[in-house]
Amino acid sequence: MVNAGVVILEEEIIKEVINMKKKLNLEPMFSPKSITIIGASAGVGKISARPLFLLRKLGYQGTIYPVNAKYTEIEGYPCIQEIEELPKDIDLAIISIRASEVLPTLERLAKRSVKSAVVFSSGFSEAGESGEELQQRLNKFVEETGIPVCGPNSLGFFNLKESVIASFLQLEPSRMDPIAFITQSGAFGTLSYKMLNDMGTGYQYFVSSGNEATVDFFDYVQYFAKQEDIKVIGGYIEGARDLEKMNEAIRLCQHQDKPLILMKVGKSEKGAEAAISHTASLTGDASIYSGFFKQKNVIQVDDEEELIDTVNLFNKAKTSSQRGGVALVTISGGAGIVMADKCEQYGIELAELMPETTSKLKELLPAFASVKNPIDVTAQIMQDLEKLFESIRVTLEDDGVEALVVYNQLGDFLAPKIIPGLSEIAQQTNKTFVVCWAGASEQTKDALFAGGVCWLPTPSRSIRALKNLLHYKRRKGLLPKQDFTVTERLTNRIVMEAFEGITNEYTSKQHLKNYGISVPAGSIVKNVESAVKVAEEIGYPIVLKVLSRQIVHKSDAGVVKVNLKSEDEVRNSFEEILINAGKYNPQVQIEGVVVEKMMKEGLEMMIGSIQDPLFGPCILLGSGGVFVEVLNDTVIRPAPLTMEDAWEMIRSLKGYAVLKGIRGQGPYDIQALAETLVKVSEFCLDQQDWLQELDINPVLVQAAKKGVTALDCLLVGKRTAKHLSYL
Amino acid sequence: MVNAGVVILEEEIIKEVINMKKKLNLEPMFSPKSITIIGASAGVGKISARPLFLLRKLGYQGTIYPVNAKYTEIEGYPCIQEIEELPKDIDLAIISIRASEVLPTLERLAKRSVKSAVVFSSGFSEAGESGEELQQRLNKFVEETGIPVCGPNSLGFFNLKESVIASFLQLEPSRMDPIAFITQSGAFGTLSYKMLNDMGTGYQYFVSSGNEATVDFFDYVQYFAKQEDIKVIGGYIEGARDLEKMNEAIRLCQHQDKPLILMKVGKSEKGAEAAISHTASLTGDASIYSGFFKQKNVIQVDDEEELIDTVNLFNKAKTSSQRGGVALVTISGGAGIVMADKCEQYGIELAELMPETTSKLKELLPAFASVKNPIDVTAQIMQDLEKLFESIRVTLEDDGVEALVVYNQLGDFLAPKIIPGLSEIAQQTNKTFVVCWAGASEQTKDALFAGGVCWLPTPSRSIRALKNLLHYKRRKGLLPKQDFTVTERLTNRIVMEAFEGITNEYTSKQHLKNYGISVPAGSIVKNVESAVKVAEEIGYPIVLKVLSRQIVHKSDAGVVKVNLKSEDEVRNSFEEILINAGKYNPQVQIEGVVVEKMMKEGLEMMIGSIQDPLFGPCILLGSGGVFVEVLNDTVIRPAPLTMEDAWEMIRSLKGYAVLKGIRGQGPYDIQALAETLVKVSEFCLDQQDWLQELDINPVLVQAAKKGVTALDCLLVGKRTAKHLSYL
């Protein structure tokens, strides 16, 4: 629908396409055949010594060139005096020198055609104004030369498979699983690695992204998503910098079926404050991130332990196509109750066992065991392990079982007898199989892992991780077949003339109407005769409203009259609201009076939009009345919204129950509400160059199949925008 | 207020007082000077061998008498052949024999005046019908002899301070802190002990209460609360058996200022099912327990790790009278953000630092550190530890700081330098001081504990535990000065005549009125003339309702007419509702027509009551309308309610915001609502012998200072009761 006020901005499309960032090649960084260490020194613990120490420790097979004018030899390696003496085409430079020296050094390295670099040095954007300037110059260097730089202010990275380590990590990485981890906090990354190690698992790839000079968090995600030997990608993120990259990276993860498990921090205002002063990240609004992650099936975890448990589970356990409930097989009734409680808390169903399963279990187990799920096989079963294994097998074969958790504790002396049986089961089943062996020794854990068994540490943590896997599977089925790509959106882009103020209600609604969103029948009139005429045409009852830029809160000013049922009422009210307008503001400039069909049957809700600095237009849906005011019952997701997104948003509201109908009211037209959300999303995307905020409040959701009508609408241009109170 | 239908049941009071359970003396159990082991055997691992092995290992100083007809000597102890050969007055008997042998053995032991016993044997109430009978006989034995028995089906107990262990625990307890732990699941108890040990702490007292033959969970709580050397009491509980004991135990904990930290399981239906089949506990409704624990300032934790972390924190950290916010001092910006996020999530305030503190920190710390809370001292501070200590001291001295968490990670090599400084700070401050040293080695943890420092393992877990301590302190201030004891309640007990059916609305409301609860002015009439007369007396508008036992849903039957404004309307409506009643049910028996003052200005809510098998009358408060229907916005607490309880209940509702006033509606009379809750609580307690359910729905909360009126009321006698749909 193209009308007078609309032009297609083709030039802008072209400009955007040209601006698409040059792809940086991270291959030489993570798989270097040669490494130079600038400012290298001898020893074990110092930042400048650590990379060489770790490379040697890990047995890196490529060539290493330490550079330091002070030495002729470091740890047996001939030391190069000047960068200019380095051979050309070295894959990776490790830079551990003063911030002010970093750029000149990189430029000299560029002349030797170095292919990538990692900068440990701090003193860039995290260090205030002067650092910010250095950072900008570094970013520019990367953009112009196409040489990817990890950092600055980075702990570095490793790729254990190729014994590459370019880091001053205080740990010596050893355990390696097909897991990649990216962290915006070096310290947090180290901690997560330590915690995961204590659980018997390790990262293959690890990268501390530091201040992200052009190469950002999601560049790494993209790179790791493409690595065939990587199964799971995890990360700690304070904020993303580039929406397009993030979208592309997540799309790639979906395409490659690589779960992306993120701990997003900076939810709180105080937290966000800290994030800015810490790595100068643009920490977006937590609820937008959460909405976005749900939309994209990114697994968001809540704390350190949920992070490593979930990474562990996705790494070790199978995710079959089977659907059903969770079976719990425990040697402790207490643990069974704890796990059942947690299943309920997380909305995971316990499997209802088939009668055949129950009777088989009855045969296998002693009389005082519980053959109902949670199945308490009792500690006595340890005296006849075949019965334990058979009970697990029988339960796994039940068609209603999607995942099974076995609980055991302590008793490491039994490990050599139990673990082979559990390993065999883990290998044979195609269902998700978890062993929660609480208080297991290092040796027991190692043996479980070696046997391909997914181990988790406590009843509660097992179920918390499992819920992430099960929810991920379910959401995967819901993802739209094809994503709404940026290019597609651009080709049908329609933009209204930029408008920098606040549009009046009538004009705003006309814009919505152009996008196929219903508004009440009506017209804008200049005198009472026209008002009566319009009223007769559209039919009583009607609403009258004075339009004026000086009157923002119309009801307070007494310039709205509703439910007018006759010509007389229209005439009287017309006069009255004009008088009220004059009383409210003697200098009032009246743009006209709106005569509109009175709509009353339906549920009032609200739809809004804001422009987020990262996500661009985000669409908010809120329940009406007390729900939004008392409970903040809103949901927000970045545009574009698909119909699936819109439905998910609606379903996530507490007010969804009201939409579906309660107390003889409803059901309401949820399908039309979803369609309206998608239309608003399209509108906001198209108008994003000038539109800062949108507020359709109330939007009336009518009875099923009766549609949705925007009763009031406010559009705010960018220059005028202040944050609306609902955010 | 005593009226015709009411009698004071003095006999019943007396009966109840007499029935108060005999106090059992647990002293010989936990501090025995002599122990006999019935069915003892030699070795390390077997259940029958384990107690002797552990007693020797721990170096028990009392006398041990193994009893087993098969041996003459066990592990160097002369073995006694028959119980009858035992000396008299042995303090404790450990019984590890077949279930069927337990009672005869106990009887023989009783003849030798044994003072207490622990029974490991299973095959009692957890094992179905035959076991249940054995259990009953065992309970009776305890009641009649006054010999306390721990178990049956118990893992046993220990008291490390006196090297007493009467357990077949597979661990060898060693670490000991002033902590007592009671568990209804032996396996869970063992796990918690292992987890706590891994954190460098241990229980002094541990008891697995098993099937609780008369001596139950709260008997142990009472005993431990009285031990001067015990600081913290923790537990795993599936259900309580005796409200009076529980109340008394909790009161004692409060009185002794001993925090009681419980993990209550069996929230889910499935979980509860498992609980019953596991230790045959009476698992009550989870929400009632939660309400009760809040009321009593019992700390309820959500999972295994929160349990041990919270126990650890209460054990090691100080709880001063200082009020304020939490200060975070970290070497990692990331950890600071994570902790700040968690503070927000749990409703803990971050301390706003005083300008003096900030300037002192600025002097101490490098330019790139963050001197705002969370304070990022940066990892560099490790090179000048005095500055770290001084930063902590300066921050602790800030008047706005109530608690301080220092975050550090790894770097155990620095422990010898850091820990003395942290210990000194911990000893000097009177504020809550926590060191979260993530990835600390065993040695580091031990050194921290030895230095009196409270250590916690991760940023998220530190804040989760800390919130329990801070909330505990705040609630302590809110506890009523004097508890409403059972005896006090009984002395003014007033009971209506038992009523086994469903009372009609009018009668129900008269009962409420007798307890000082407002109901609309009105009367019950038999004919239209009386109706008009009453209407004129009370003033229009009025409501008419037909009273009949055959008509439960009056509105549906068309026998209610509201907002009648004149004599004519009353006459017409009177006729109409009688006709409708006849149409609804041709055999209808009409008890009369209620003429009532029409009340409409206010907020509709609901108050209800059910009889819980354990807690007795519990009072439910629910928001009105969509809040209760869509959100289940209700809160339930056992009677008696104090005014503080009532206020807390009201404040805990989402609908509290509505009561306080929104959108120009309200505020409403919250004080009167609280008073009404207390009156309902008194009513339900007084009538508990016959009253099963009560439903005041709606109750109209009028504008501030205008009161609260019960618009409708239903009372259900015990024999008739079915569960109301709102539970």
Structure described in brief:
Chain A has 727 residues and is α/β, with parallel strands linked by helices.
Overview of this protein structure:
Two copies of one chain form a homodimer. With 727 residues, chain A is α/β, with parallel strands linked by helices. The two termini of chain A are 31 Å apart. Helices cover 40% and strands 21% of the residues of chain A. The first copy, chain A, is built from 25 helices and 31 strands. Chain A is flat and about 100 Å long. A seven-stranded mixed sheet of chain A has the order 10-9-12-11-13-14-15, with helices on both faces. In chain A, strand 4 (73-74) and strand 5 (77-78) form a beta hairpin. Chains A, B: Keywords: ATP-binding, Ligase, Nucleotide-binding. Chains A, B: It holds the Pfam family ATP-grasp_5. Chains A, B: Residues 509-563 form the ATP-grasp domain. Chains A, B: This is CoA-binding protein. Chains A, B: It comes from Neobacillus kokaensis.
Fold topology:
The structure is a homodimer of 727-residue chains.
Chain A: E1 6-7, H1 10-19, H2 27-30, E2 34-38, H3 50-58, E3 63-67, E4 73-74, E5 77-78, E6 92-95, H4 99-111, E7 117-119, H5 128-145, E8 149-150, E9 156-159, E10 164-167, E11 177-183, H6 186-198, E12 203-208, H7 217-225, E13 232-237, H8 243-255, E14 260-264, H9 269-279, H10 286-296, E15 299-300, H11 304-316, E16 325-330, H12 333-346, H13 355-364, E17 375-376, H14 385-397, E18 401-409, H15 415-428, E19 432-438, H16 442-450, E20 454-456, H17 459-478, H18 486-491, E21 495-496, H19 505-514, E22 522-525, H20 528-538, E23 542-547, E24 560-564, H21 567-584, E25 592-597, E26 603-612, E27 616-622, H22 625-631, E28 634-638, H23 643-652, H24 656-660, H25 670-686, E29 691-701, E30 708-710, E31 713-717
Parallel strand pairs in A: 2-3, 2-6, 6-7, 7-8, 11-12, 11-13, 13-14, 14-15, 16-17, 16-18, 18-19, 19-20
Antiparallel strand pairs in A: 1-21, 4-5, 9-10, 9-12, 22-25, 23-24, 23-25, 26-27, 26-29, 27-28, 29-30, 29-31
